[in-house]
Amino acid sequence: MKTAFVQALALILSGDRQLGIILATTLRMALASSVIALLLGAPLGVLLGSYAGRGKRPLVVINRTLMGLPPVVVGLVCYMLFSGVGPLRHLRLLYTVRGMVIAQVILLVPLIAGTLESHVSTVAPDIRETALGLGLGRGRILLLTINESQYQLVSAYLLGLGRAFAEVGAVSMVGGAIAYKTNVMTTAIMNYTNMGAFTTALALGIILLAISLLLNAGVALLHWRLTR
Amino acid sequence: MKLPPICKTYAGRKVLDLPGLELKDGVIHAVIGANGSGKSTLARILAGVLEPDGGALPRVGPSGYMPQRSYPFRMSVLHNLQLTGAGREQAMGQLKAFGLDGLARQSAKGLSGGETARLALARLLLKDYPFLILDEPTAAMDVAATLLAEELLLQYQARTGCTVLLVTHSLTQARRLAGQVLFLREGRLVEQGEAGQVLFHPRRAETRAFLDFYAL
After folding, report:
1. Chain A contact for B103, CB < 8 A?
2. Is B8 an 8 Å CB contact of chain A?
3. What is the mean pLDDT for each group of 10 consecutive residues in chain B (216 residues)?
4. For chain B, which end, N or C, has fewer CB atoms within 10 Å of the first or last residue's CB respectively?
5. Residue B147: which domain range?
6. Domains and CATH numbers, chain A
7. Is residue B79 assigned to a domain?
8. In the 8-state DSSP scheme, what is residue B74?
9. Angle formed by the axes of helices A97-133 and A150-166, to 10°?
10. What is the pTM of this model?
11. Which residues fall within 8 angstroms of residue A62, CB to CB, at 6 or more apart?
12. Contact residues, chain B, for A131 at CB < 8 Å
C-alpha cells in the first residue's frame, strides 16, 4: 500500500500525458456541468423558496425526489435518447463530453435548487415583508434574496462541482469511458482497477481526494469570511 | 380614512373580525391589546403583506410599514438606508439623528437587536409616506433609544402630516404619542376613541379590565 502511494505520487509529479488528458476531460466536464446547473438551479431554488402560494409543497416534494435520482437511471435514459435508435440520435451526443455534461446537469439542477430552496424558505418571509414595507418591487426583492443567500449559493455550487467530479454511473453510460476522449477520473479508476493498474488508479484517487479537500476548505473559508 | 370590514381566519379560527374602521387623517393611532388580539394581523393586512378573507383590501395609497421582525439586509448600515433611493448625505444625516452614524460602515448583520430596530425605523422614515404602519417599533430598544425614536417619529409626523397606525404593548407610549387609541380583544375592536378618553375613562368594561391589569 505504501509503495503504491509513493508510485502514485511519482506518477502525478511525472506529468504523465494520459493522466493529464483524464484530468483535463474531468475538469472540462465538471466545470461545464456545474456552471450550467448553477445557472438553471439557482433561480429555480430562489423562486421556489420565495414562493409561498398553493402548490409549493408538491413542487418541493418533486424536487427532493429528483435530488435522489439514481445516476445510472439518468445515464440509462440519456443513453436511450442519444443512442442510434433514440429520438435525439441526430444530435450525436452519445460518447461525447457534451452528452456527459447533459446527464450531469440533470443530476445537479435539483441538488442546487433544493439546497437554495431550503435556505431561502427560512429567510424569504422576513425579507419580503421588510422590503414590501419599504415599497421595493419584486425585482429588488429577488435581488435582495439572492444577496442574502451568497454563502448558500457558493456552497450549492461547490456541492454540485464536487458531485460532478465524483459521479461515475451516468458519465460511464453516456460517455463510454473512451480513452483520450471521454474517460474521466472516476471511470478511469474503475478501468485501471479492472486492468490491475492499481498505482494509476490510486494516483487518480489521491487527486480526487485532494479536489474534495480543496472544495471543502473553500466552503469553510467562505463561511468564515461571510459570517465574521 | 375609511376602511372596509376586515376579517382573517387561520386554520378555521377567526383571528380578526373588524367592522369598517375609521382612521383620522394626520393622527397617530395606537393599537393596544393583549397577545393574540389581532394587532399585528391588522397591521400586516393594512400594509398589504397579508391578504384578509375575501381578497386584498383596496389600496389606501402608498404606505410605509415596519414589521415586528424588520430585516437587516446583508450590506453596510449606510447601504441599508440607501435602499429606498436616499442619497449618501441624506442617509448619513438620518443615521446621525438616530445615533447610528458611528456604525455606518459596519455590516447590518452585526448590530444588536436595539440597533437593528433603530436602523429599521431610520430606514423607513427616510421617505415621506401619507400612511405609516409601525408594528412594535421600539420593543427591542432601551429607554433612551425609545425616547429618541418617539421624538423622531413625532417630528416626522408633524413634518409630513401622515396618518400613523402604531401597534404597541406600551400603554405609556400610547399615552405619549397617540391621538387615538384602538383597543382590540380576541380579534374584535372593543373600543376606539381619543387617547385620553380610552386610556383614562374607558367606556367598555373589557377596556377597563385590560387597563386595570396593566395598572396604568
Report:
1. no
2. no
3. 89 90 95 95 93 78 89 96 94 97 95 97 96 97 97 97 96 96 96 96 94 77
4. C
5. 6-71+128-213
6. 2-227 (1.10.3720.10)
7. no
8. S
9. 170
10. 0.81
11. none
12. 71
